[in-house]
Specification:
alpha/beta; Rossmann fold; seven-stranded mixed β-sheet; globular
Length: about 180
């Protein structure tokens, strides 16, 4: 399991305590230093690395699962397809991707400037991932409004969009 944009390692350490073999990556060297110190103090073996989520320092198909709690919504819109391609590259086909982002519906003063709708996220991720579930839970008072999604890395390419007037021949359906 990899924690993308892991910061000081809170989620990665939680996963390690739960028995997962975990890596964490963040672009901020100070955050990775803090995460490594926290892991040492807790006696947990977590592979924390400084890295850019658009150029991850891992081989193709390295992970069966990934989590992102608050990194994706910081990626500028033009770079989101590159993020999706990179996460798909390091995940195995069928790998699980757990994503949480600040919702467009969040109107409070705290949170990132990019507050995304499900459509914004789907536009970037759907070519490489299947959406298995999306939740928009009611938050406790004074907390950020977030979406949570469970996605799966596609095993085959996304089908092309249906175009009205397209004729599908039965023999082409069974290839």
């Amino acid at each position: 399991m990899i924690d993308l944009g892991c910061g000081a390692g809170t989620n990665a350490l939680f996963l390690a305590r739960a028995g997962f073999r975990v890596s964490g990556v963040d672009i901020a060297p100070g955050a990775i230093d803090a995460a490594q110190r926290r892991a040492r103090r807790a006696g947990l073996a977590v592979d924390f690395r400084v890295g850019d989520v658009l150029r991850l320092p891992y081989g193709a198909g390295t992970f069966a699962g990934a989590t992102d709690v608050g990194c994706f919504h910081t990626v500028p819109a033009p770079l989101r397809p590159a993020y999706a391609a990179e996460v798909a590259r390091i995940l195995r086909p069928g790998g699980v991707f757990l994503l949480s982002w600040i919702a467009r519906e969040h109107t409070g003063p705290h949170g990132p400037p990019h507050r995304l709708s499900v459509a914004d996220v789907a536009e970037a991720l759907e070519p490489r991932f299947l959406f298995r579930s999306v939740e928009f839970p009611d938050p406790p008072r004074h907390e950020l409004r977030v979406y949570r999604a469970r996605l799966e890395r596609r095993r085959t390419p996304q089908p092309p969009p249906f175009r009205a007037g397209t004729v599908v021949r039965p023999e082409r359906l069974h290839r």
